[in-house]
Amino acid sequence: METLFAKQDRMLANTSTAIVRKLMDEINWDARLISIQGPRGVGKTTLMKQYIKKNYPAYTREALYCSLDSVYFSSHSLLQLAETFCINGGKSLFLDEVHKYPNWSREIKEIYDTYPEIKIVFSGSSLLQLLNGDADLSRRCIPYTMQGLSFREFLLFYKKIKIPVCPLEELLKNPADLCHEVNKNCLPVPNFKEYLKVGYYPFYMDNKRDYYTSVEQVVNMVLEVEMPELCRVDIGNVRKLKALMEVLSSTVPFTVDATKMAKLIGINRNTVVEYLYHLGRSKMLNLLFSDLTSVKKMQKPDKIYLENSNMLYALSSRTVDIGTARETYAVNQLSFAHKVEYGKKNGDFKVDGKYIFEVGGSGKTYDQIPDIPNSYILADDIETPYRSKLPLWAIGFGY
Questions:
Q1: How many CB atoms lie within 10 A of CB 223?
Q2: What is the mean pLDDT of residues 292-303?
Q3: Quick one: which of 322, 320, 344, 340 has its CA closest to 331?
Q4: In Å, how far from its chain's centre is CA 274?
Q5: Pick from 97, 123, 145: which residue ends a domain?
Q6: I want to staple 60 with a disulfide (CB 3.0 to 4.6 A). Which of 56, 112, 187, 222 is the partner?
Q7: Which of 99, 114, 145 is the last residue of a domain?
């Protein structure tokens, strides 16, 4: 076990706590079993390391971070680790890449039941595996979801501009306060354009030149490894899944025609709908329905977006349509804390069953949402609100 502590000491020495994600303060770290979920590349591992560094003394032996894909676990079990850790006064286990360890959820459950003095925080880069495993731990585990950087966090991480969180309800009630604060500290429009292209994943600053290659690697890992292993996707259809993602990245969002989509990529309609469902669960796509109260499993979505706008720019083989990028961003930011439905008849989106949003450029008019209560235009290329027309970037301060 001392080899794991030595490895932790080296990792923590190189872990910066200069900027920490807001989720750090939202997690109840006193809970006995916590899962941190989220798509690949959003910073779950960094968050766990930062927590240990901020809350335990250097060279602590009361907390242990370890990745379950370590060679240590080729000859040691997770249960053996927990027993030795507990005997030596350990308090908190931080387990990463849990999906790389066979029967991880079963052994975590046994540790939870056998060693009540140990707190466990676990995560992994396979969101599908975590979702499947959490079903076994659902009565014991408190799950938290981590998303990529919001526009607010992008300004904090990359521009060193600190703006408070502004929940959607607060923004709609008084948008002038947020807009005044942002405009006082930066030029939001050019920063927002940059965010749409490269601001979502925290690893941008590590390697700017290969950023889109890294985003593609995140997508390929899900399509090539997780979908065949966890969703029974025929390995021969992986190329068709990639073709589907490319089609979606190069097309203006449309009302979904599953039959047409099936013909386009060469698989049957029901398989397309099933694959869309799995891609939604893995946070590769955001699937929108026009009525969330009646949605059934494997039902065809009404509209499809890639999960975030950076993915759009990384995967598209054509010049990205700015309208698509705007709507992708809106769905991504709003869906983190709210229920988003396809507007269908009125507006682009309905949020929490009561707010209607139409997304567009600075010249967007109210023609598609005339006299509808609680309706708003989210307009790009503007700095300040006017009546119910708000800057599109402003919804990026919700977390």
A1: 23
A2: 79
A3: 340
A4: 21
A5: 145
A6: 56
A7: 145
The number of folded domains in the chain is 2
**pLDDT, tens digit, for every residue of 330-379?**
999 999 999 999 988 889 999 999 999 999 999 999 998 988 999 999 99
Residue 381: DSSP 8-state: T
Q: How remote is the C-alpha of 375 from its chain's centroid?
A: 27
Adjacent-strand bridge partners of 36: 123, 144
Domain of residue 129, residue span: 2-145
* Helix, strand or coil, per DSSP, at residue 230: helix
In the DSSP assignment, the letter for residue 153 is: H
Q: What CA–CA distance (Å, rounded) separates 301 from 292?
A: 10
Nearest to 19 by CA among 143, 167, 149: 149
pLDDT of residue 124: 83
Q: Domain check: are 273 and 296 in the same one? A: yes
Q: Which two tokens stand for residue 205?
A: 């600053």
How distant, in Å, are the alpha carbons of 121, 287, 291, 301, 341 from that of 295?
32, 11, 7, 9, 11
pLDDT for res 135: 58
> CA 165 → CA 170, 282, 377, 383, distances in Å?
10, 27, 21, 18
What does pLDDT average to over the chain?
92
Question: Where is 282: in which H helix or E strand?
Answer: none
How many contiguous H segments (helices) and E segments (strands) does the chain have? 17, 12
Closest CA relative to residue 122, chosen from 148, 149, 92, 147: 92
Claim to verify: residue 117 and residue 187 sit in the same structural domain: no
Distances (CA, A) of 5 to 68, 87, 193, 200: 14, 15, 43, 32
125 & 173 share domain: no
Same domain for 22 and 75, yes or no, is: yes
User: How many C-beta atoms surround the C-beta of residue 28 within 10 A?
Assistant: 8
CB 21 within 8 A of CB 146: yes
